[in-house]
């Protein structure tokens, strides 16, 4: 099994998979009579159908034992999905490029700095949320609507990957 190299999250490296939601280097302008800086359009919420709605939820995630064997990835074909950390903790991201199925050899791993969120583009393969802390909270912006919006792919045993953040 291949051990994933965990890369620091940057806008450039993550661009094939989605948006990095952060203020550093982002467009902004002043509002509210000059008392507030608005960092504008950090990500775009994607929905497949006009009748779909963008919704806001909170996910409370528990850490998984590490090293983690990455056995599966999921994708949301009908909408994007954003994760914004609420407690300021770094978290892990495992992604693969768009395609009918994820390719094990193209899977990448990233770690945030705790002040970055991410927005997976519609259809991007990714692992379910991976917190580093024992428990963590995330503001999630995604799609509500009819139709199946979660495909799962389980890797064959010889395609599985290892995520080992403490090595």
Automatic annotation (TrEMBL):
It is an enzyme of class 4 (lyase). InterPro entries: RmlC_Cupin_sf, UAH_cupin, Ureidogly_lyase, Ureidogly_lyase_bac, Ureidoglycolate_lyase_dom_sf. GO terms for biological process: allantoin catabolic process; purine nucleobase catabolic process. Catalyzes the catabolism of the allantoin degradation intermediate (S)-ureidoglycolate, generating urea and glyoxylate. Involved in the utilization of allantoin as nitrogen source. Belongs to the ureidoglycolate lyase family. Its cofactor is Ni(2+). It comes from the Bacteria. It comes from Pseudomonas fluorescens. The keyword Acyltransferase does not apply. HAMAP family: Ureidogly_lyase. This is Ureidoglycolate lyase. SUPFAM superfamilies: RmlC-like cupins. It catalyses: (S)-ureidoglycolate = urea + glyoxylate. Pfam families: Ureidogly_lyase.
């Amino acid at each position: 099994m291949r051990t994933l190299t965990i890369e620091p999250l940057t806008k450039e490296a993550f661009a094939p998979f989605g948006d990095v939601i952060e203020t550093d280097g982002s467009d902004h302008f002043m509002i509210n009579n000059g008392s507030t800086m608005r960092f504008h359009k950090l990500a775009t919420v994607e929905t497949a159908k006009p009748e779909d709605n963008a919704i806001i939820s909170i996910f409370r995630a528990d850490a998984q034992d590490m090293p983690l064997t990455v056995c599966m990835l999921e994708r949301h074909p009908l909408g994007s999905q954003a994760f914004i950390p609420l407690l300021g903790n770094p978290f892990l991201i495992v992604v693969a490029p768009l395609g009918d199925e994820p390719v094990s050899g193209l899977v990448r791993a990233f770690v945030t700095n705790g002040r970055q969120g991410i927005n997976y583009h519609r259809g991007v393969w990714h692992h379910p949320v991976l917190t580093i802390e024992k428990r963590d909270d995330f503001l999630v912006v995604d799609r509500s609507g009819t139709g199946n919006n979660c495909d799962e792919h389980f890797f064959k045993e010889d395609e599985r990957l290892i995520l080992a953040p403490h090595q």
